[in-house]
């Protein structure tokens, strides 16, 4: 068995005494062979990241530590290795790519220096040789203008470029194994496709083994040779990628695969004669950064350029776009959190745009928002009941009645009515998002604006929340403006789709039509970027 | 990305300070009008009483008989030509008095900044490196005690211990005037006098910066880029010196900039305790003598000083943090 690069044998990682579980990783055995990409798939809390960190001894000691098992690499047990030897292995023989390219680089150090640091630690190259090697690496990861790039600071690069820098660092010494911990999760779909492609290309060229940690089966379908599915710190299934993806054996794997949103729109079109609830006409919004009292305008960002939209009563429209496309700005304008430069926003024939805060107040109950981050959007010091009841109470409902309604709403969103007396931190991410939905529904709005409501959730939870939104929408007769970066999610809940790019709507139409024949090149590139596209279509 | 040159940025910032300083002058001028009594009554009082005609005559001489807005207008007009008026109490032009006192105050502020920032950062750094050991606890507890102790009490105790009991340092003044030291000897003499005032004024800020630096170090140490550095195989020592330290420094520098205004306020007390011949002591004296011209001059000078120090801090910040865009 000489082709085994790394073998993990009954690895156990203990969590601190105050956590809800004893082990983050409870006896995992895995092998990674030469020139293969092994994907570890699991939802949050499955222990997949802890396992990755344990290999390089990067666990947040002393609270979290490996307590049992072996990690054999090049004939040595990494868990037993003295510090100095471990440092030589880090990046020298095993390198790591992290999830958050925004924070993984030192903000005060030039990018070139940060890559060079790896060579400085592990080799005896002269400064000149190091510089040459850094330039080569930057070319290898296809970053533009290597000369300018090495003199840039991280904040001057985009997320995708930063991730390329991190990959260049990982490649610097041609390690035997690269551990990639959700390296594309924080990126836009098209950027994700590019980075996945790059990782695969480099892996083939250098013959490196890759341990790829992800929660997304689409990504697995895109790059994996073999797959291991993890749950509660244990491997529930492992095998060749094609086999696990097409014919999963474990129930958990089956459930995960079933939760992957498909590429076929499920909903039929609504009857054409229902009237328009939300109308946006020629909306313009530009952000200007000026430099204080005497400075002129420094930078302009056109977040919305001549946007025209219509949303019919009891239907739902998805705004799909990547970060910076202006989709969130549009949503904030619709709920009146942001003033517009010009153009008109009407809800039920009433003008919303151009009103002052006080004038807007009577309209607030018609439009409600479900926010992206279920952790930050609920006041941690308020009871769930009070959070939900506040809206109706501001509209003149008595406290007793508002709380009674809150209990009913909680039941509707699938939580126990006695949740009214508990605090947000007692709930999981998915449950919190349900509370957020109940809060939005409490004032009986006509329109719900949902800003990436499921992008912070695990796939299985994501599916449940999407289904909940769909059911509620029908039973309450709501309209919904659904903002997402994910075409697959848009397809499951929305009859219509508008694709946004750089502040403009480039394509708009019925979901079924756009999915059948995307006409704009950008829409087509979005479709091509969906990870595991072929596999997902084969599932439907 | 730096847009525009540093020079034009500084020039623009200086332009922006003009309305700030004008505002400070006007507010101070009006505030002083609210204080009971004026120079004429104080002079009359010291003379053991005087007829009303004499006081009115004095007021007319000082220009205090005119309406407030005329006085303000005249003051502002003179200020344009850097004429800060005349101190009838000290019988000298205000500007001359101020410039004479500015040097000692700058000396005290400068040495305090160096000591408090230098030692504060060092203490914070060490506490963070020794986190949750007895050494960290000692530093943290001492910092909290010092932080909570009033300035004047620290000053008096230092005098008591180091000047009176141990006789290591002089109790007051900036130099030994009767010794007529020159050159190097004078420098040593002033440095000797400087120790206790600097220590008194520094301790509070030292504790503040130490606490801030410790917290900042610990926060930075948990960030992702530190794990990246560790994953590179970098040693813990180098991670601290190369990556964490500079990042941790930023909030301390910000705080130091904000605190320079407070430093001036603290120097009033310290200069009074140690008879340090600076602006603070002059302010203290002129307040009791109702010497408003001089007091206004001191306020003006302090405002200018604070504004300039803040500008310097902002410029330093541009060099420390590439994310800060000037312009």
Automatic annotation (TrEMBL), chain A:
Domain ABC transporter: 6-257, 278-527
SMART domains: AAA
One Gene Ontology CC term in the entry: plasma membrane
GO biological process entries: peptide transport; transmembrane transport
Membrane topology: Peripheral membrane protein
Subcellular location: Cell inner membrane
Molecular functions per Gene Ontology: ATP binding; ATP hydrolysis activity
Keywords from the named record: ATP-binding, Nucleotide-binding, Transport
Gene3D superfamilies: P-loop containing nucleotide triphosphate hydrolases
Homology family: Belongs to the ABC transporter superfamily.
Name of the protein in question: Microcin ABC transporter ATP-binding protein
TrEMBL record, chain B:
Domain ABC transmembrane type-1, first and last residues per copy: 102-317
Compartments where located: Cell membrane
SUPFAM superfamilies (alphabetical): MetI-like
Pfam family, one: BPD_transp_1
One GO cellular component, as annotated: plasma membrane
Protein's GO biological process: transmembrane transport
Family recorded in the similarity comment: Belongs to the binding-protein-dependent transport system permease family.
Protein name: ABC transporter permease
Record organism: Candidatus Raskinella chloraquaticus
